[in-house]
Amino acid sequence: MFGLLAATLVAAGLRPVCGDPPIRVTVVVVLATTTNTTVDPKLTDLAKKVQKRDPKLTGFRLVTSEGKSIAVGGSSEFELVDGKDLTVKVEKPKDENGRVGLTIKSPDVGSVTYTCACDKFFPIVTPHKTKTGETLIVVVMAKPCTEKK
Asked: How far apart are CA 57 and CA 52, in angstroms?
């Protein structure tokens, strides 16, 4: 029975991932504005990095943060704002350098596949504007570093 399941997964382009621990993915939803200069203290570093590319964005507020454990080969959706969703798929387990392969599909940006290091956030400034004119920023972090070194 297991052989049939494994053959079906391989034929579908998926590989069985016995033994690969799930990856903890955290998605942080941030809204940035040009109408004020208030920056949530938790977002100071992010604000500085975003402002290097877009100095007009001066105010940053944290909307929500959600973490989910996702199996290697699996995916999960995260609710953003205005009915928008972000899909995160764990493509590859942690490698010898502690990096994980992810594909993220964000609103109005499309799919981005990349590898990320443990505890490093990957921000995406989307072109989505809320009704109040705020810019949606999605920040993704994968945390494969559950093992003690």
From this structure: 10
Give dist(CA 142, CA 27) in Å, integer: 9
Evaluate whether 27 touches 86 at the Cβ level (below 8 Å).
yes
| Reported pTM | 0.82
Residue type, 75: S
Express each pLDDT in 111-147 by its tens digit: 999 998 877 899 999 999 999 999 999 999 988 655 5
Mean pLDDT of all residues in 20-34: 94
Through-space distance between the first and last CA atoms of the chain, rounded to whole angstroms: 37
What residue spans define the domains of the chain? 20-143
Which residues are bridge partners to 31 per DSSP?
61, 136
Torsion of CA 121, 123, 129, 133, to 10 degrees: 70
Percent of the chain predicted with pLDDT > 70: 83
Euclidean distance between CA atoms 40 and 28, whole angstroms:
13
C-alpha–C-alpha distance, residues 8 and 47, integer Å: 46
pLDDT tens digits along 39-55: 999 999 999 999 999 99
Is 48 in contact with 69 (CB distance < 8 Å)?
no
- Answer yes or no: are the C-beta atoms of 3 and 112 closer than 8 Å: no
